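Take one record.
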Amino acid sequence: MRRALRGYRAYVRAAVAIRLQYRITIFASAAVTLLWILLVTRVWSAAYQGRDTVAGLSRESTVVYLTLASLQAIVINSPLMWIMAARVRSGEVVFDISRPLGYPGQMLALQAGTSVTQIAVTLLVVPLAGLIGGLSGPAGLAAGLLYPVALLLGWMLNGLLSLLIGLTAFWTVENTGIAVLYRFVAAFLAGASVPLVFFPAPLRAVADALPFRYIVYQPAAIYIGQVNGPAARDGFVVAAGWIVLLSGLTALVWRQAYRRTVVHGG
């Protein structure tokens, strides 16, 4: 067990080192995020047109939600889908699966290392994001304590979902179309650009039935006080249930992908 943990920690450190080699890309991505915050918060501020609240959210709360959701994307977004597909195409995946560490664990460790770097970048741009968009403190002590828990659950969910999409490369080799479609659908149903409280009832029911809401909406809604008390607790239970379910599904899909790789010689 200790040996495996050391191996995964090595993957995390390697991911940090690799990510830091592309500093220009990192800061360019942060600049794009800041521009997106500027645009989306201005559009939603204009949409309120002098009204105090819409669907139970004040203009200020909506702006904070959208700013926070955009910053969360820097931390949570996962490159696993493209990394896995590239390694399948190049044949490097053969070296990955020959290592004593489990392949899904290797990929999640790489994602953890990437997130460490992205957290550092997020902390640097938070002051600018607050000026460009709008940020305030959490709705209360409970919100401040529950927010990082919700964010961690969202990170785990997104990592598992990205891993599942990445595993499709073992069948398709090129999964760019699937990955782009996933990113679009996941971002929309997670409430990244439109808070779920503004969704029409049928679409809200779909979003509530899927795990995406726990990636973006749940953490940000807890922070601004839109979700609290029993609703926050129940959300944690459901998110944890999705993590268990997706972990099992990932194991099943990986088993089939591994057999396919061995049978076809990589």
Remarks:
- The mean pLDDT is 86.
- The longest strand covers residues 53-54.
